[in-house]
Amino acid sequence: MALAQTLEQFLRKRGTYTSGLPESITAYRALRKGVRAMTEFIWKQPIYGLLAGAALMTACAASPQAETPTVNSPPAAGASGASAPVNAPSLAPFTASGNTSMDTWRQDFASRAVANGRDPAVVHATLASISPLDLYLSDDVGVARTGIEDQAEFAKPIWDYVSSAVTSDRKSRGAQKMSELAATFDRIEAVYGVNREAVTAIWAMETNLGSYIGNFDAANTLANMAVEGRRQRFAESELLALMKMQERGDVTREQLVSGWAGAMGHTQFMPSTFLAYAVDFDDDGRKDLWNSPADALASAANYLRASGYQKDVPWGVEILAPAGFDWSLADGEDRRLTTWTSYGLSPMGGGAFDAPETAYAELWLPTGATGPKYLLFQNFDVYKTYNRSDSYAFSVGLLTDGVAGKSGPVAVWPTELELLTRRDIMVLQDNLNRLGYDAGAVDGIAGRGTKGALRRFQKATGIVPADGYPTTVALDQVLAAS
Ligand code: CA
């Protein structure tokens, strides 16, 4: 597993993905299968299994305080019987999951969890029923699609993402929920200082206002993530949090329903977020984010407050700019609102900005110099603590306005622009890096690092507008300079 990851990173760093993506994927897939086959072969050898198993577990141990690895008796070929007990006498044996890597990881992790102070009975209950999910553990790279690069916000044009996230149905139902739960929201605003529109917008984005909270078992999905390997440390720490939630009596094992990445309830809390921020707001003695909107919404407000939410300050305001405006000022830097107004920016809706003059804002161009343009205030970054993509936070922002009856953006999306494919973006990144403009990893994702590098290239070579927006025209310009 670790070897395959290393190879993937190696290929990406080398830029082999740029010059031969299909070849790289074929090689990666072959190696990944090879490692699996080798592992399975080794496990089937009675003597070598013990030695190699110990070596593998040492190599894969995520925690520095991991105990000396213990090893299962290697299963006979095709055996599906119970695994042998480990050196944690209070931990009952597990029934095989049908996946050797999963069983190996579980035995090791369960021992470490108990050594970490988790209750052996809770550890066992949490991990007893795990089983391999294709989503994480398929041999087919095309099926196992859990990488950040596959998430919709990085794959779709932003106008597609926004139109599927910010629907008139969500706006009207959100407004209706705010009215139904007015008394609860009054208390939430008083206690946490977070506007109801913001909480409702998060609720709408996360679970379509509670209508879809997922149907995965949180423990199982996190266990699969751990075995898959790329986010093993994260998944294990969330599993430990899941165990603590049960030990505290906050939840029962059966309650732990989640989305595909382990987030739970109406407002999709990860276990560690639950431990830190979940509250019992309807005073029934339980923090029930699955069945109690009051608990879930107050918990989300508690989290937003802790992330720096500013009450009654907008998340963002669509702007107009004077002709000839220097779009390279959309450089991610926060400037005072008074600075922006002195440069001639004004709200699209007319009048003055509905924010304190002392507020700081960033100029953001979701699709470059053509299309909607925004000043973003601190609450935009607070939304991004929920999900780090700009498209996500932007959609939450538009829903925040939408449930209050405001629509936007006013400017038209430049859907006629020819956007780059992931492979094009890799070529762009690679060439920007070669030209000395640091675009970061060659990963095919046009994030802020890539856009910043493109903007600096445009500025240095006198291209106007220097908006950093990666179009086919921009790619041609970079290639011409390479
Ligand atoms: Ca409750």
What would you note in describing this structure?
The chain has a 5-stranded antiparallel β-sheet. Strands 1-2 form a two-stranded antiparallel ribbon. It folds into 3 domains: 2-131, no CATH class; 152-213 and 305-413, Lysozyme, CATH 1.10.530; 422-481, Muramoyl-pentapeptide Carboxypeptidase, domain 1 (Orthogonal Bundle). α12 (218-228) packs antiparallel against α13 (232-247) and α19 packs across α20. The relative contact order is 0.09. The protein is mostly helical and 482 residues long. It has 21 helices and 7 strands. It binds calcium ion. Calcium ion binds at residues 280, 282, 284, 286-288, 292, 295. Calcium ion (CA) binds next to loops.
What is this structure's SSE topology?
Layout: H1 2-14, H2 16-43, H3 46-60, H4 100-115, H5 120-127, H6 134-137, H7 152-155, H8 158-165, H9 168-180, H10 182-192, H11 196-207, E1 216-217, H12 218-228, H13 232-247, E2 257-258, H14 271-277, H15 293-306, E3 316-320, E4 334-336, H16 337-342, E5 346-347, E6 360-364, E7 374-376, H17 378-384, H18 390-402, H19 422-434, H20 448-460, H21 472-481
Antiparallel strand pairs: 1-2, 3-5, 3-7, 4-6, 6-7
Helix pairs in contact: 1-2, 2-19, 4-5, 4-12, 8-18, 9-11, 10-15, 11-15, 11-18, 12-13, 13-14, 14-15, 17-18, 19-20, 19-21
